[in-house]
Design goal:
Elements: H1 2-6, H2 10-32, H3 38-61, H4 66-84, H5 92-102, H6 108-127, H7 131-208, H8 218-242, H9 251-266, E1 269-275, H10 283-302, E2 308-315, E3 319-326, H11 338-349, E4 353-358, E5 364-371, E6 381-386, H12 390-401, E7 406-412, H13 415-425, E8 429-433, H14 441-451, E9 456-461, H15 466-474, E10 479-482, H16 487-498, E11 503-504, H17 506-526, H18 536-546, H19 551-558, H20 562-576, H21 581-590
Parallel strand pairs: 1-2, 6-7, 6-8, 8-9, 9-10, 10-11
Antiparallel strand pairs: 2-3, 3-5, 4-5
Helix pairs in contact: 2-3, 2-5, 3-4, 4-5, 4-6, 5-7, 6-7, 7-8, 7-10, 7-12, 9-10, 10-11, 13-14, 15-17, 18-21, 19-20
């Protein structure tokens, strides 16, 4: 009750004051005539107290029934007054005004007829008074109350529209800023992919000529290499400045800045708290959490009409969790629409999850979770690099050589050589170019997964090709990334994939999912027998999931690693266009797949 009173506006207090004045008038009138009509006026006072409190209680407990209770209680009270104390009939005008004030465009007809015509006519008939005078006065009070209600509703709508406009302007501004950030990042990646790789190739190429140069010319070689390295450092520094974004700060600082700007622009109170010790994480994770918080704040105000929001960022070695809780009206999560679906897709790319808990009148809680499995790496990762450009392969080898957790077991120039190397060295992960002579990356991927299903294969390419990426994931690729990725991030991605994760470059992820969806729709048009393009392995996994088995148990039964089973299941969920095992099993049973 107190929580509702705190949110009252001036018109709520005005209605409360009028009800209180009405009760005071009844009590004083009864007290002045107590000696003459003691028994009748005692009953009137008790009856009036009930009429005063019962509608307020109903309004608190069940607001939809408030108006009907108000009309009935007023009617019964004044029918009794007409017989016991007709001189108090005039006070009914106050309650009739309140009824008009509580009416809406859907209820004013029956409420007006009941309180403006039927009730005064009965009162006049019982009290032996001229009913038309009472009808006119009651009707006027109801009309005046309803007109006042229309003005209040218009003001409320105006305030809501103004708040929504302010919120949408803030939302659009942030979208524009983030879109600009993403475009600048894309541009910096393209420049890095061309100029950076060219300089790297020149440096490595000049170094490879060192053994053929006369000793007297080695100093010139050192000078040329030094110039190239300084130029490469300058290019990277300028590209870093070009992609300077809020995500260059720590995650907590970026989120705090977002909440402060949101409070400043909307007036909504946002309490931000960090739980745990912050650690370096991938830029894509920062970006994802930042976007999720932005969308959650907008939803809390736009859909939930909240005025206070609590944001908690939980950080530990296992996962990153963002919890956004508001005090709004609560809402069906399906009505959040595109924003919520966008959050789910962003989190799914990072193997994260989204859960929304909402109840009517009790606010909404949004929880975004991203696993930090890259921190679990302890043993050295055996890595094979496959690229037909020797300079690129050597550059990558040099990058990985600086990290103790990664051991490069060799390099290969094409698919045939890579398969031979896998037979000898049995690497944990193969980092392979897509476009190569003789045998390209996709063909090699298929053969690797056939011979060594537990081996993790990551494809990399210079150009963005969503169709190619979708085909790679369908064939079991564990990752798909662009060569323009920052060296520091590629290390983290390799760790993530080693621990069972799947990685798709952020810049093409949305288009990859669209392409996979388009392929599924094309399969549906081909024939009804298997519209989802499921393999024998997919159907076997569905059977085990339907039996309630967990990933670890399935891995043991099928003689696979748990990470491989997770990858297969992720591909299976993509084919079925579902988000989790429960939805996959339900759809499979509905379509008769199992």
């Amino acid at each position: 009750m107190l929580s509702i009173i705190k949110n009252w506006f001036w018109y709520n207090w005005m209605t409360f004051a009028m009800r209180s004045i009405w009760l005071i008038i009844i009590v004083i009138s009864c007290a002045l005539q107590q000696s003459q009509f003691f028994s009748s006026f005692s009953v009137i006072v008790i009856f009036a107290i009930l009429v005063y409190f019962i509608p307020l209680i109903v309004q608190y407990k069940r607001e939809n029934s408030y108006l009907a209770v108000e009309v009935m209680s007023t009617s019964f009270f004044y029918l009794y007054i007409a017989a016991a104390a007709p001189e108090l009939l005039w006070s009914c005008a106050i309650l009739v005004f309140i009824i008009g004030l509580a009416s809406s465009r859907k209820t004013y007809v029956w409420a007006g007829i009941s309180s403006g015509f039927i009730l005064p006519a009965l009162n006049g008939w019982i009290a032996n008074q001229l009913p038309y005078e009472i009808v006119v006065s009651y009707s006027f009070c109801f009309t005046f109350g309803f007109a006042f209600s229309v003005l209040i509703q218009a003001q409320k709508q105006s305030v809501i529209i103004q708040e929504q406009k302010q919120l949408l302007e803030q939302h659009i501004k942030q979208i524009e800023e983030l879109t600009l950030i993403e475009e600048r990042n894309r541009l910096s990646h393209e420049l890095h992919d061309t100029i950076g790789h060219s300089l790297t190739s020149l440096i490595v190429g000049v170094e490879s000529l060192r053994s053929f140069i006369h000793t007297s010319q080695l100093e010139r070689i050192d000078t040329i290499v030094s110039i190239g390295q300084r130029s490469l450092d300058d290019i990277r520094r300028h590209l870093h400045q070009l992609s300077d974004t809020p995500f260059n700060h720590s995650l907590s600082e970026s989120l705090l800045q977002l909440t402060q700007e949101f409070t400043k622009s909307t007036g909504i109170i946002v309490n931000f708290r960090v739980i745990g010790n912050e650690m370096p994480i991938l830029r894509e994770m920062n970006h994802c959490i930042y976007r999720c918080l932005q969308e959650s704040l907008t939803n809390a105000v736009r859909h939930g009409h909240a005025n206070t929001i609590f944001v908690n960022l939980h950080i530990d070695n296992q996962q990153l969790r963002l919890q956004v809780e508001d005090n709004g009206i609560g809402m069906d999560s399906d009505l959040y629409g595109f924003g919520l679906n966008g959050m789910k897709e962003r989190l799914a790319i990072l193997r994260g999850t989204l859960s929304v808990h909402s109840q009517n009148k009790q606010g909404t809680i949004v929880i975004c979770t991203i696993p930090l499995q890259a921190e679990l790496v302890e043993a050295s990762i055996r890595l094979l690099i496959v690229d037909d450009q020797a300079i690129i392969a050597d550059s990558l080898k040099h990058i990985f050589a600086q990290h103790v957790n990664v051991t490069v077991v060799g390099t290969a120039s094409d698919g045939y050589e890579a398969l031979q190397h896998c037979e000898r060295s049995k690497p944990d992960i193969v980092l392979m170019d897509v476009r190569m002579h003789r045998m390209d990356g996709l063909q090699t991927l298929i053969e690797m997964k056939r011979q060594w299903p537990d081996m993790k294969v990551v494809l990399m390419t210079t150009f963005e090709d969503p169709m190619q990426a979708a085909r790679a994931l369908e064939q079991g690729a564990d990752g798909y990334l662009l060569k323009s990725i920052h060296p520091r991030e590629i290390i983290e991605i390799i760790k993530l994939i080693y621990n069972g994760g799947t990685w798709i470059d952020q810049s093409i992820a949305a288009r990859v999912f669209e392409e996979m969806k388009r392929q599924r729709e094309a399969l549906e048009k081909i024939g009804p027998n298997d519209p989802y393009g499921l393999t024998k392995r997919d159907k076997q996994l569905l059977e085990e999931l339907a039996n309630g088995m967990r990933y670890k148990a399935i891995a043991s039964k099928l003689f696979l690693t748990e990470g491989t089973v997770r990858n297969y299941c992720s591909t299976l969920y993509s084919k079925l266009d579902v988000k989790n095992r429960e939805d996959a099993v339900e759809l499979a049973r509905l379509k008769g797949i199992i």
